[in-house]
Structure formats: structure tokens, C-alpha cells
Amino acid sequence: MKLYFFNTLGRKRQEFKPIKVGFAGFYSCGPTVYWYQHIGNLRTYVFNDLLKRVLLYNGYEVKHVMNVTDVGHLTSDADEGEDKMEKAAKKEGRTAKEIAEYYLKVFREDLKKLNIIEPGIWCKATEHIKEQIEMIKTLEEKGYTYRTNDGIYFETFKVKDYGKLAGLKKEGLEAGKRVEMGEKKEKTDFALWKFSETPGLRQQEWDSPFGLGFPGWHIECSAMSSKYMGEQFDIHTGGEDHIPVHHTNEIAQSESAFGKKPWVKYWMHGAFLTFKGEKVSKSKGGLFTISELEEKGFEPLSYRYFCLTAHYRKPLAFSLEALGGAQNSYHNLKNKILELLEEKDQTKTNLNKLKRYEEKFNKEVNNDLNMPKALAVLWIMLKDKKINAKDKYKLSLKFDEVLGLNIKELKKEESEISEEIKTLVKEREEARKKKDWAKADEIRAKLKEKGIILEDTPEGVRWKKL
Ligand code: AMP
Ligand code: ZN
User: Fold this and answer.
1) Ligand 1 within 6 A of CB of 43
2) Confidence band, pLDDT 50/70/90 cuts, at residue 413
3) Ligand 1 close to Cβ of residue 239 (< 6 A)
């Protein structure tokens, strides 16, 4: 089956045709590990995960590389301001390395909670200084750099198609943005290497042929991706905020250094998680971490389910109410799957219909990862009276290879709980029959403590996980 992606480069939907048949190499811009990754950041990693799962589902061998930015990302995203890592180290009274290790550890735990498959290769900027220096040297030899009093800069004027990813002219790329020019020749020029202002003041600085200092933010992704995937590869991803600066600059320096065009065949970008109409941010709010959501009673996978309800290229409006809705749907899905496991269903499956559900699902996920539609196919299939419980369960498991909602874990975990719960629910019903309301309420409270809520429906009592 054909697989289509929307390529930011050229802004069109294209059939995925990898460089090497059957193999997909993909690089994702990873976290800057100076603070917790919030649920906005994590939306981007859920998108990366869906992409990877769709590639695997289609039978590709996948090589996934993710960087960890632990130096050089300045507070402005451009070449001004303080290094985020140095700033955090000062604030928390720890070394930059400790800060990086701690937040990377939490990030990896969050990935696990969200059932995100870890990248095959993690690479830290501070562990690839040599590679970055080599690449800057190549750019220097090829005449793409110049020196100012604070660093070595890339001269964007030398690249004829600079800005092609964003589809903007140079003037547009930085328009409306105040840019500290210093000795820079053009607004769009960017630092490859920054000199230490006062040697010894920074925790992280290295000797280089250009002087004591540290790499700029963009060079790490070009140097590390080429180290692990060669000078040309299939897919590069990130959040949409990376299009006009970070990825535009990665392309300029990589195509200039390696002399290959296009450096990356498919560029894919995730839209933002928004809060009250704005992107989630420190000043606008909505900046929860997964642990904070857990404290509020949400399961991490309910957040994953929430992400599936919007196409990755569309903004997704976050609110606790909306997440609550997703959590209900996710619980209903889990209950439905558990029911399938218990049903002694004699229905003869309409095999044609079953096949069509699978085809429809495959078509949706292969159509630029259309997860809301794929999720809808799952729900329609689950409600179809012409498919028996066993087949529904089997196909749900297959779909879950892409959705990642941990359906296969349900049996073990939930049925263990349900034995105990069933007994309690039964005891409560008996208490109600005897009009022993105090006992019935006591059992209800006990179940609630265990994260189970009861609903009295016309068909009898139903229980749900909180
Ligand atoms: P950072 O740790 O700041 O480098 O960001 C990590 C990733 O999160 C990047 O790919 C960003 O594009 C992405 N990102 C930041 N804010 C959001 C948001 N509100 N919604 C989705 N992705 C985001
Ligand atoms: Zn990057």
C-alpha cells in the first residue's frame, strides 16, 4: 500500500519513496534538557512516534535518531541571550551535566508513560563537539563563514535558495522580529560557534581552531544526523516552530557542507498544542507536565488518546475539560476491549467487512497519518454487529500497533483488578437489595479509592477506571 506524507519542503503531499528500498532513516529534533518537557513538547514526540509506528506497520526497517540539546540553545532561539543550560545550572545550583542528566531521565520516563518507542540512537550535543568543529571547518574551507567579535557565523547570502523550507524570502524570515545584529552582515546569518565572553565563566566551553567557546544550536543537528545517517537521509521532523529558523539553518549549512540536494527528502512538522487560543507557554499557561496531569487524576495514555483526536498538522486546543473527554473515551475503549475478552460470541464474522475495515484503517494512517479518522474506523468496527468479539479483538490489537494505546496490556492488568472489583460490585449489589445503604456506600468509597467509579445504568451497575 502506498504511503503519503505532507512534505513541508515544497508544501505538498507526496508518496514516500525512501533512498534505500525498505529502509527509512529519520531524525527528530529532541529536547533541550534544561527543564521538564511540557505536554506541548510531548505532542511533538507523540507525532514522531506515530510516524515511526506507521513506517514499521508498513514493513520498513526504521533507524530513528534523536538529539539531546545540552549546550548552545540560547534563550532567544537565535544568537542572543543566555545559554538555557547555563542559566538553569546557575538557578538550580547544579552542574550543567547534572541538569542535563536529570531532565533527560524524566523525559525518557515520560516517553515510556506515553508508550512512545524510544529512538534507536540518542545523541548529545556535548558528546559531539569534535564532529561539529569538523563541520564548521568544512564550511570555513568552502567559504561560507565569517568571523565577528563574538563568534563564527554562517553567511546566508551565499546560499541562493536560503529559506526554501519556510517558503519565504530572507526578508520575510526575520520580518517583525527584532534581531540583535552585532557585527552580523545579515539578519538571517547565524552563529556556528560562539566565543566564551570571559574564559572560565561558563561551565561548558571547548578549545577549537576558532577560539575557546561552544557550538551554536543548529550545527549539532547537521553534524550528528550525518554521523549516524550519512550525508543524505529520508525524514527530518520537529515542531512547526523550527521551520523558519532552526531547520532553515540546518538545511543551509548541510547542503553547503555536503554539496547534496536535497539534504533531507521529507520534512515533517507537528503543529502546536494551544491553550486558550495561544501556544502553551510559561506566560500563557497550560504548561503541564505529564506528572502534573497524573496528580490531577489523568492517565498518561489519556493524553496520548487526546493527541490522536487531532491531525498532527492541525493545532490542538488543550484544556483539562477536553482532556477529561478524551480520558472518558479512552476508558470506554478499554472497557469495550475488556468486554470483548469476556464475550462468548457466536456471531459469524462477515469477512469482507472485516477486510474493508482493515483497508480503511491502513488507508487513513498511510494518508499523512490521519489518526482521527483511523480512530473512528476502530470505533465503527468495534460497534459492528457483523463482526464477532474475537475478530474485533484481533483487529484492535493490529490497529494498536499504530495507535499505541496499549491494548495488548489490557487483559492481564485489568482482569486482575476486575476479579477483585467484581466481588466488591456484587457485595454492593447485595447490600443494595437488602437496603443496607451504608454498606453500599462504603463499598462505593472503597472502589473509588482503588480508582474505580460505579455507574448505575438501566442495564445494571457498570464500573469505570477513574
Ligand atoms: P525544546 O525542548 O524547546 O527544544 O522543544 C522540544 C520540541 O517541542 C520541539 O520540537 C518544539 O518544536 C516542540 N514544541 C514546543 N512547544 C510546543 C507546543 N506548544 N506544541 C507542540 N510542540 C511544541
Ligand atoms: Zn534540530
Assistant:
1) yes
2) low
3) yes
